[in-house]
Amino acid sequence: MYEDCVQPFCAQTTDTAPLFVAEAYDNVEKKIKEISLESYRGKWVILFFYASDFTFV
Known about the structure:
Blueprint: E1 21-26, E2 31-36
C-alpha cells in the first residue's frame, strides 16, 4: 500500500512525529504563541494545518 509512495516522506500511523517548534494561536490567551511538540510527549495530539490560507481555523 505505501510501497509506491514517491514523496520525500510518507507518514504512517505507527511513525513518531518529528519534534518541532512553531507559532500557533492560543484560543484561551487570545494570542499567537510558540508551541513545542516536546511539551505534549505522552499525550494524544491532533495536528492540522491549511497551508493555502492564512486565516485562523
